[in-house]
TrEMBL record:
This is ABC transporter ATP-binding protein. PROSITE patterns: ABC_TRANSPORTER_1, ABC_TRANSPORTER_2. The keyword ATP-binding applies. GO terms for molecular function: ATP binding. Keywords: ATP-binding, Nucleotide-binding, Transport. Residues 9-246 form the ABC transporter domain. Belongs to the ABC transporter superfamily.
């Protein structure tokens, strides 16, 4: 039998308290693993610690207890290998869209070293990513000239430009209308099928979680920990029409029941 591959992200017994011993306990004894190339969605009640979990995995905050290991290494500083996109696209207003997308290349090695000599190659790559999300022709525009959805697509390209092995998405489509959001789900799915990064997506949208993820993890109310997980059995590529099937809707409802129970501090016994 082939040896089991070590998970790409290993979170073991992590606790996190903001603001000293009397501060807010955001996470308590949270554990989860994510396989290399796996797409995991994290859902849960508001304020349960989802964004905190993202900050720990990317090394933006240290954990108070437990360990976070990514690609076999303990995370003890910000992870440059991760690509990140958040609810707010945070594009720099004085840079063109192309230059915004290329920003991580100025920071992350080995790209930083190679950028000057290979600028044309990197620009070509940025253009291809922009084209993949429907932004061909907008390279020289500034953020204020783009709609919110277009800015969000550009921020997704910026998260992907340095071929991140790990993609961390914290409600990246939360501020968008449903049509733009669904459009971006399909584009993100396409990007993931092509580039195969390991992805952790935080979302409040259960349909989004089931459409995109290989596995959905449900967190408890604060202090957060993983209460339940569901593997999403639907084959890829998934189509928006699939979201109307009884199987898809049943899974969304099951996750909703878990979150309702979590909000009341209850736990649904695992049927599996
Ligand atoms: N910088 C901070 N300082 C102090 N407390 C914080 C800080 N960031 C988050 N918290 C607290 O930690 C808890 C978890 O916050 P977090 O943002 O991780 O939750 P979340 O699940 O992402 O929330 P939401 O779903 O509403 O976005 C909350 O009670 C929040 O008030």
């Amino acid at each position: 039998m082939a040896a089991m591959e070590r998970p790409f992200v290993e979170i073991d017994g992590v606790s996190m308290r903001y603001g000293g011993t009397e501060g807010t306990l955001a996470l308590k004894d949270a554990s989860l693993n994510v396989g290399r190339g796996e797409f995991v969605a994290v859902v849960g009640p508001s304020g349960c610690g989802k964004s905190t979990l993202m900050r720990l995995v990317t090394g933006l905050w240290p954990c108070s207890a437990g360990s976070v290991i990514v690609a076999g290494r303990e995370v003890d500083k910000p992870l440059s290998m991760a690509g990140m996109a958040f609810q707010n696209p945070t594009l720099l207003p004085w840079r063109t869209i192309l230059d915004n997308v290329m920003l991580p290349l100025e920071v992350v090695e080995p790209h930083r070293r190679q950028l000057r000599a290979q600028r044309a190659m990197y620009e070509d790559k940025a253009r291809k990513l922009l084209a993949m999300v429907g932004l061909a022709g907008f390279e020289k525009k500034f953020a204020y000239e783009l709609s919110g959805g277009m800015q969000q697509r550009a921020s997704l390209c910026r998260a992907l430009i340095h071929d991140p092995q790990l993609l961390m998405l914290d409600e990246p489509f939360g501020a968008l209308d449903i049509f733009t959001r669904e459009d971006l789900w399909e584009q993100l799915q396409q990007v993931c099928v092509t580039l195969k990064p390991t992805v952790i997506l935080v979302t409040h949208d259960l349909k989004e979680a089931v459409f995109l993820a290989d596995r959905v993890l449900v967190m408890s109310s604060r202090p957060g920990r993983i209460l339940a997980e569901r593997r999403v059995p639907f084959p890829r590529p998934r189509r928006l029409e699939d979201t109307y099937t009884p199987e898809f809707q049943a899974l969304v409802h099951e996750l909703r029941d878990h979150i309702s129970a979590a909000r009341k501090g209850e736990e649904i016994p695992d049927a599996a």
